[in-house]
Amino acid sequence: MKIDASLAAVVTGGASGLGLATVKALRAAGASVAIFDLNEEAGAKAAAETGATFAVCDVMSDDSVDAAFATARAAQGQERALICCAGGGNAISTIKRDKETGAITVFPTDKFEFVVKLNVVGTFRCVTRAAAGMATLDAIDGERGAIVNTASAAATDGQMGQAAYSAGKAGIVGITLPIARDLSRFGIRVNTIQPGLFATPMMLRAPQPMLDRLGAMVPFPQRMGDPVEYASLALELLRNTYLNGETIRLDGAIRMQPR
After folding, report:
1. In this predicted model, what pLDDT tens digit does every residue of 90-103 receive, in sequence order?
2. Residue ranges per domain, the chain?
3. b vs e for 189-206, b when ≥16 Cβ sit within 10 Å of the residue's Cβ?
4. Widest pairwise Cα distance in the chain
5. Spatial separation of the C-alpha atoms in residues 129 and 156, rounded to whole Å
6. What digits encode the pLDDT tens for the residues 211-220?
7. 3-state secondary structure of 92
8. Among residues 54, 165, 198, 230, which one is catalytic?
């Protein structure tokens, strides 16, 4: 896939972090980009800074996702590229003992369910809409579109308290190959990036000593990833037509410890 002025792309979670870095990389290459994000203020600011289109989007809602794609397509035409960066998690132990009373409490099921839906169902919701639109396009060099999803190192080595987040991200890894096979007949590719520790705005809220310790856990290079490095891989997954159905770790060879 050529990334130039002829390409229209959508980036979910594109107002910050890995998503915003990807928006900037796509725009630098000349592509038209629509930012989907739930944060209206951050989304409008990112769109103004990059020259992208912004659409408010809640990936948990069919209606919101459909409306966002309609806004994007009205502004830039049918997208051939989708990069899904929207997601999130929480940190709750499966069960917990109160230190004072000794009472045992369980991970609230609704909070577990929310995180799984946000990550895997939210991603799948966007993938289906984009793929349906891409399938209507004429193929270019045999290809109609490409999709990049975002999982996490937690999908395969989640830490304590990450049961919900790990489940949601593992779900994204799990759907990658079946979706790639489903969409192969339409000339649409699907790949997933599995990032490790990245210096996103959310991560950088932590105290500097903690950030230093986290960076030192990475075998090489001993630092957290730069969102620009995520964006670089995302664009390569769009460009390289033979990459399909793959999940690629981008983590400096880290394997997360239990805590």
Report:
1. 999 999 999 999 99
2. 8-250
3. bbbbbbbbbbbbeeeeee
4. 66
5. 27
6. 888 888 999 9
7. coil
8. 165
